[in-house]
């Protein structure tokens, strides 16, 4: 059984072997700058070897009884939960989020493994009436083949399990390319999978500092039949174009520009709590985090006062320290983006209510910031800030809020607070988003289909729909009966 100290791994995982490399890159703690480990910077050839290992493992993996795949997934789930604390500490150190959030992510990430361990047994086809008296139609659901997962740094564990658990359940081997900022959690996950008994080649982790080189292999190699990407919209578009050459099935979980609408009949205390959860979790570095607060005239000043008061309670610091609610941002570029959005908003008439500056702790720590009187001309209206900035827009009529909310090329998550049931229905139906939270600030769960519309992506993760992404339908026409 793996001990917690075994979870800090500095080797990649290919074909069931832990692979070192001469070329390596450092993984640093964003809170302290400390180098936690140096991991292999693998090459395109290594990536091709990982694909070959996955392809070789596929026939046996798909032939395994669904119950046996389910048992392996269940064993992986149990090991992840048994090491929840060690994984959470590792994640906080390489990613920066507060420890309580890391523990939450381990539980959330593990829930996909548990869910798809159950669902593996329910991958069903169907029999349909034939188009002639002597014919029958069978619809078989078969695993698509090798899946390549390219994942971001903001959820180093859950974005991997959300893709790999349904793929593995369906009978597909996987090659994972974790983000260069957070490969350690991915490698720890692979160690726990190895411990659970997954056969060699079924799970591979390719660490690399030059993602484009690995991405090129994973999106163009004909042996990879499915690419599942979570990350920014520009990179997603590029990968999607690369997938076209071999007509690969692709899932894209991309950026967002989530609106959070507060109508004048809302329960303001609940709205403020929802706002804190949705905006400041992971220091505002989540794809579903609120990017724009749209607040109706009647409650505009009251909402801003209460939100600012709650923000003053957000303790900023090293995620490992007791009581910290906001950790550092991932790197200097993230800080620069937040600063540019604040400067642009203030230049165009925004009003700074609190924060606005790098935190006195230095490094990449930043003050929780609230800017009021924001308008559609400002950058924050159209671009994802990905940091602890809460911009507040004012609106008058309900229709205006829905139009403002939809005035973006993104369509991932939207939130709103209201009490009137007609207003609730009108808004729910009017929002062009893949996910809508009503009187709720957190919506991710393995039980629901997660995903976006418009330029926020293609495909869904979680729920039974998440499994369909890793299967193909085979129609068999049985004649001569
Ligand atoms: P990113 O696009 O920079 O990187 C994501 C992954 O792609 C990383 O593993 C990176 O190494 C890799 N990558 C980068 N360039 C590549 C290339 N040319 N070829 C192949 N791979 C490449 O995104 P990020 O900064 O890590 O993550 C933040 C973004 O992810 C935000 O836009 C956020 O909204 C989005 N996100 C979306 C979801 C969702 O479910 N929709 C969830 C989390 C994050």
Automatic annotation (TrEMBL):
Keywords: Oxidoreductase. Its EC number is 1.2.1.16. InterPro entries: Ald_DH/histidinol_DH (IPR016161), Ald_DH_C (IPR016163), Ald_DH_CS_CYS (IPR016160), Ald_DH_CS_GLU (IPR029510), Ald_DH_N (IPR016162), Aldehyde_DH_dom (IPR015590), Aldehyde_DH_Superfamily (IPR050740), Succ_semiAld_DH (IPR010102). Residues 18-476 form the Aldehyde dehydrogenase domain. Gene3D superfamilies: Aldehyde Dehydrogenase, Chain A, domain 1, Aldehyde Dehydrogenase, Chain A, domain 2. One of its GO terms (molecular function) is succinate-semialdehyde dehydrogenase [NAD(P)+] activity. Coiled coil: none annotated. Pfam families: Aldedh. This is Succinate-semialdehyde dehydrogenase. It comes from Halomonas salina. The lineage of its organism: Bacteria, Pseudomonadati, Pseudomonadota, Gammaproteobacteria, Oceanospirillales.
